[in-house]
Specification:
alpha/beta
């Protein structure tokens, strides 16, 4: 046991850090210093991510951007419990926490009243999706955060946890508006766009015409402004890539670049379909060679395949969806499948087995078991079933909500039906029904669907979706060696020693040059109204 005096000294010193982390903190303190003039109120604000490779990227990005933009640096976090050790790491490179749930304290009463009123008026799941406050769309973020945080396959409109999630979102909303009223962010850097821990600030920043940036470090390092000139002005939702403009962007490339791009897309697509794991499914491939036993029964009837999504994960990551969530989508498909004379097969999503996903995987498993009981005529496959074998045995069509398998099955000659906005929306090699009636007709006609499958268009899409922005925007240098991005050390504190050892004058010079050039590319989005801060109530 420690004495009271020792306990006081320990609190004054701050949280105990392991040796590699302490070395990294000391390294940053000696390396990064705010020695540039700061404009009044100007700040570069970054989400406090625990990911160690991202943290090291932030040491460069935040200091160089702040210098170029004449700003101070702050970080934000909206987790219920603050992480003193993580805060100490961010403070070491000049990014103390400046925005948290503490900023929402004056708004608690108002947020509680708003949450109670919104929750009491919910009649359908669509009502959750459409929640907005003062013209700011919050519902999709609330919906997806609820599913992920509580590991649910769908929303329960009477669940008190949903009321709590709405309340939490409103606290973040008011805290962010108050912050934006007193500060002048020159840029906001986040690690995701789809959950309310960052998503609410992203939407408010976009409305306020503040550049929102994502950091990429694999396979190449670069920053990308998600609310830039390529953004869709019809939505408040900043998106990672402008997939609805892929064909237009590709057409602007030089002929030689287009030819090289198609070749690159073709080779990578062929490798994926040959069973080479490439990161889409962590450490595995959906196109491995099949086994000796048949997967599909030989009944003489047309066979239709449905690929399930992770019910708990980021339903509303794209601009729109025909259903409020994946649970409602699959029930709609299978209810109508009972009116057909086809054999329907469902393959669950191959979720990984990480311990952190245990609750989500259990929720997905329970949802699939319920589907099996509800639709006994449907055959459910093992999640590891080979897509290559399924196509070889013969399927008439494949249905997906908006999965990457859309271009993969199209490349294998199978008509694919999506259920809303998706990465392939700019291409006709998939079917994109615009209404529920059109979608329903695709189910009934699943044995005779036709899609304009052009192999060249699929190769073009593959290049645009997986390579174009990395190739065009990637920096000449990078903060660390590629193997540290996702190797076995990436999640361990020992990787901090590798970051320190890999720091060289040449690397620093290359990174400084990149950020000097990047600042000139930041483009404010289309003019939008800046919402005033909410007056706190007691």
């Amino acid at each position: 046991m420690i004495s009271a005096l020792q306990a006081v000294k320990q609190r004054l010193r701050g949280p105990a850090l392991d040796e590699p982390t302490q070395r990294y903190v000391e390294f940053n303190r000696g390396r990064w210093h705010q020695d540039w003039p700061v404009r009044d109120g100007a700040v570069v604000l970054a989400g406090m991510s625990p990911g160690k490779p991202l943290i090291h990227c932030y040491t460069y990005a935040l200091n160089h951007l702040a210098r170029e933009l004449g700003a101070e640096i702050e970080s934000f976090s909206f987790l219920d419990r603050r992480d003193p050790a993580l805060e100490k790491i961010y403070e070491s490179f000049g990014a103390p926490i400046g925005l948290s749930l503490e900023d929402a304290r004056p708004f608690r009463g108002q947020a509680r009243e708003q949450a109670d009123r919104i929750f009491a008026n919910l009649q359908t799941k669509w009502d959750v999706v459409r929640i907005s406050v003062d013209g700011v769309a919050l519902g999709e973020l609330i919906y997806d955060t609820y599913l992920r945080h509580f590991a649910r396959a769908t929303v329960d409109l009477r669940d008190e946890n949903l009321r709590t999630m709405i309340y939490d979102a409103l606290l973040i909303f008011h805290a962010c508006r108050a912050y934006l009223a007193r500060k002048q962010p020159a840029a906001v850097i986040v690690d995701h766009l789809v959950y309310h821990y960052s998503g609410i600030l992203v939407r408010l920043a976009t409305l306020a015409r503040i550049p929102v940036l994502l950091t990429y470090y694999a396979p190449r390092f670069f920053l990308f402004q998600v609310n830039n000139a390529l953004s869709d002005p019809a939505t408040q939702v900043p998106l990672r890539w402008p997939y609805w403009k892929y064909r237009e962007i590709f057409a602007q490339l030089d002929p030689a670049d287009r030819a090289a791009a198609l070749a690159k897309g073709r080779e990578a697509l062929q490798n994926r379909l040959a069973g080479k794991a490439d990161g889409v499914l962590r450490g595995q491939s959906a196109y491995a060679e099949g086994g000796p036993a048949r997967l599909l029964a030989e009944t003489g009837r047309p066979r239709v395949l449905v690929l399930l999504h992770d019910f708990c994960d980021a339903v509303h990551v794209f601009r729109e969806f025909l259903f409020p969530d994946f649970y409602e989508w699959i029930h709609f498909v299978l209810r109508h499948s009972e009116q057909t004379e086809f054999d329907w097969y469902v393959k669950p999503h191959p979720n990984n087995n990480e311990r952190s996903r245990a609750a989500m995987n259990a929720s997905n498993k329970a949802a699939v078991e319920k589907l099996q009981r509800t639709f006994p005529r449907v055959r459910f496959l093992d999640p590891s079933a080979s897509n290559k074998q399924l196509v070889a045995e013969g399927i008439s069509a494949m249905f997906t909500g908006r999965g990457t398998a859309g271009h993969e099955f199209a490349a294998l000659g199978v008509p694919v039906v999506n259920a809303g906005d998706n990465p392939h929306i700019d291409y006709p090699f998939n079917l994109h029904p615009a209404t529920l009636d059109d979608f329903e007709q695709c189910i009934y006609k699943a044995d005779r669907l036709e899609a304009a499958i052009d192999p060249r268009a699929i190769e073009e899409f593959f290049y645009m979706n997986y390579f174009h922005f990395h190739d065009r925007l990637g920096a000449a240098g990078r903060p660390f060696e590629p193997e540290l991005a996702s190797g076995p050390e990436a999640g361990k504190s020992e990787v901090f020693d590798r970051f320190i050892a890999g720091t060289t004058p040449e690397r620093d010079e290359a990174m400084a040059l990149y950020f000097q050039q990047f600042v000139g590319t930041i483009v404010p989005p289309q003019a939008r109204r800046l919402l005033p801060a909410t007056a706190p109530t007691t």
